[in-house]
Amino acid sequence: MMNSSEACSIAKSLISHSGIIAVHAVMILIAIIGSSMMIGLLSAIATYRVLQINLRMLLCSLSAVITVRSISTLGRSAFFLSLSGQTDCAQVVWLLWRCQSFANIISGPGFVTGYAFFALALERILALVLGNKYEDSTIPIVGAAVTAVVWLEYAYIVGVEWAALIVNDTARVSEGYLPYCTSVSHHGVSVTTRLVIPCAVTYYTIYIMTLIGAFIASSISSKGNLLLGTIIKELCSMGFNCYSIIFPLIMWKREPGLRFSLRKQPVDLHEPPVAAHFDVVTSMWECALPPGSRSTRQTQDKLRRKPRPLSPPSLPSNEGRESSVDVCVPPGRGKRHSAEI
Fold it and tell me: Which pLDDT belongs to residue 72?
C-alpha cells in the first residue's frame, strides 16, 4: 500500500496533466450546453400540455434525472480543475477521497435513467392495452406512483454516500444494475410510444459503450498506465453528457408541440383508424386475383352492398371541385366505381 506522499505525487501528476485538463474543460462545455437544453425541454414538457398526463410526468422525471446527472458532472469537472492549483499533499489526497464519494452520487442518475426508461416502457404498454380510455384520462396516478419508485434508487444512493462522507467510511459505496426492457406487439404503436423508443435505444447504446470503455480503462490502469486509463475513463463519462444534448434534440424533432418557436396548442395524439386503409389494400389485392375466383366475388358483393368512402372524415373538403378515386374491379365484371372526396 502506497503512503500519502506517493499518493499525493500520483494525484498531482494526474490532475495537472494537460490531457486531463482538456478533457474536463470539454466536459464542462458539454455539461453547460446539455444542462441548458434539458432545463428548456423539462420546462416545455411541464408547461405545454401536448402529451398525455402520465407520460408527461414520466418524461419530466426522466428529464430531471438527466439534468441532475449533467449538472453533477459539471460540478465534478469544475472540482477537478480547481484541484490543479492545490499544493498541500494532504489536502489533495483528502479531497480526492471525498470526490470519490461524490462521484458515486454523480453516477447514480446513470442507473436511475435506466429505471426511468423502464417505467416509460411499462407506461406505454399500459397505454397500448387500455387504448383511448387511458390516453384520455387526466388522473396522474400511474405517473406519480412510478415516478416515486424510480427516484427511490437515487435517494438510496445519496443517503448511503452522504452517510459515508459523514462517518468517513470508505467501504460504503453505491451499487446498481442495468435494467432492460423490450416489448413487441402486433397492435398499432402510438405516436407517443414512437417518441420514446429512439430516446431509449440511444441511451442504452451510449450506456453499453460507456461500460465497454470503462472496462478498457480499468484494464489499462491495472497494467500501470494510469494516465491513459484516466483519460479513457473521462471520455467514457462524456457520453452521458452528450446524451443530455441528444435527448432534447430527439424530443424537439419528433414532437413539434414541445418547440418554443411554435404556438403551443393542445393536440390530439390519437392516430386515425387504420382499419379502412387495410380494407382498401385488401380489396385492391383481391382484385388482382383471376376473374371468377371466390375472393373476387366476395369483393364485388361488398362493393355492391355498401360502398366504403375512401377519404377519412378529418380531411378538409375541396370546395368548388370534385375528384375521384378509382376502385379496382376485375375486367368484364362491371364498370369502375368511383368515390367522391
Answer: 82
Per-residue cell: 296: 373476387
Q: Where in the chain is the domain with CATH 1.20.1070.10?
A: 4-258
Of residues 138 and 171, more confidently modeled: 138
Question: How far is the C-alpha of 288 from the C-alpha of 291, rounded, in Å?
Answer: 9
CA distance 83 to 98: 13
Cell of 334: 362491371
Distance (Å, rounded) from C-alpha 188 to C-alpha 132? 12
Amino acid at 28: I
- Tell me how far the alpha carbon of residue 271 is from its chain's centroid: 22
Q: What is the pLDDT of residue 20?
A: 78
pLDDT tens string 38-73: 898 888 888 887 788 888 888 888 888 888 888 888
Q: How many CB atoms lie within 10 A of CB 166?
A: 8
Give 326's strand partners. 338
Fold entry, domain 4-258: Rhopdopsin 7-helix transmembrane proteins (1.20.1070)
pLDDT of residue 261: 63
